[in-house]
Design a protein that fits this description.
By secondary structure, this protein is of the alpha/beta class. It folds into two domains: 3-138, lyase (Annexin V, domain 1, Orthogonal Bundle), CATH 1.10.220; 145-452, Alpha-Beta Barrel (TIM Barrel). The protein contains 20 helices and 14 strands. Helix 8 packs across helix 17 and helix 9 (131-138) crosses helix 18 (374-387). 52% of the residues are buried. Adenosylcob(III)alamin binds at residues 194, 246, 296, 402. Belongs to the EutB family. Keywords: Bacterial microcompartment, Cobalamin, Cobalt, Lyase. Catalyzes the deamination of various vicinal amino-alcohols to oxo compounds. Allows this organism to utilize ethanolamine as the sole source of nitrogen and carbon in the presence of vitamin B12.
Length: 457
Amino acid sequence: MIYKTTLQHITWSFDSLKILMAKASPFRSGDLLAELTAGSYEERVAAQMALADVPLARFLTEHLVDYDSDEVTRLIIDTHDAASFAPVAGFTVGELRDWLLSDHADEITLRSLAPGLTPEMVAAVCKLMRNQDLIAVAQKCVVVTAFRNTIGLKGRLSVRLQPNHPTDDLKGIAASMVDGLLYGSGDAVIGINPATDSPATTGGLLNMLSDIREKYSIPTQSCVLSHLTTTIGLMNKNAPVDLVFQSIGGTEKTNKSFGLNLSLLQEGYEAALSLERGTVGNNVMYFETGQGSSLSADAHEGVDQQTCEARAYAVARHFRPLLVNTVVGFIGPEYLYDGKQIIRAALEDHFCGKLLGLPMGVDICYTNHSQADQDDMDNLLTLLGVAGCNFIMGVPGADDIMLHYQSTSFHDALYVRKVLGKRPAPEFELWLRHQGIMDDQGNRLVVQPSHNLLSAI
């Protein structure tokens, strides 16, 4: 179908919904690389005006990626909840935007609406919103998940403790873990990116994490971010797997490039559930995503990168995850060139994920060849804290010495909790008090060399 609008006596025409969505997207380097972006600001505004008039129901019949050839599209369409969609079924994209920003769209209403929205719908309305709008709506979406603690409650901000090491040295990892715990990080997950994906290495890291967690009765969950097939193999050997990790994308071809499909994800999900390791909940999956992953795999199917990213959230939503993390600036300047583009993309991802009912966290990060710096990350950290982000990363010194990129530090987490009055997950907060790490007001206490956690290293 052709979409048209007239702007200052000039008629702009867009040959398909896929093209219209791409032209309406705020500028970013990845869409330019894919030759999808609008050719001018005027064309972008014209596309946004035309997109505002598109009925939401159109996205259920005009698929951006072919239904017959893409299992992510089939998942989106076949699992769509028509009853949840009914209250907004008569809206256009522009009307959905206005409604989301109104007082009628409150926490309870948005929670009930989430199963009725498709990724393409939320990606479309996102393209019509300023950064302020994205924050205002996301802040109203409360998504709570649980495993050994409860993540996502109002007034809470959790932290993934990321103690990576370039050689997977157990002592080095343990030192970073203890460092993070003593700064109040680790309630989202203690998650290690292994330097190698060998089952032996992954198994050793899992055992070490489990031993330390059990020795100190830490109410959190652990994860080694190995490939799904490695984790399934280890679960079959009774390894202490809490969360099953996998990077996912928004098209079948993207996921194939990651060595997976929906059937394999289902196998991992069921295996993790069968272990019954959670104590306060059974959300067992941890997914990571990022704008540009489909394009980098030449698997974007002509869809703009923000919409591809939102489609990945349909995959995540199907498996009721504990955590979904958009690693927003990790992929590099070819896809998000500078701090401005990284900030916009992070707010988009957080908004889209939350509106779809996902427990969104953000790795507030950049690579050293991007036109960004730590001041940009400070800005983004504060904005996401206001927006109600479920969790962020805690990396020693904000510098991941294994993955070679810049993220947020344990100190950054203390900062944003302090200035915004945020607290850790309740079970973890109680543990921090009992350990003498924090007081009742959330202030960090001085830890003596004799503290029992230091015996872990």
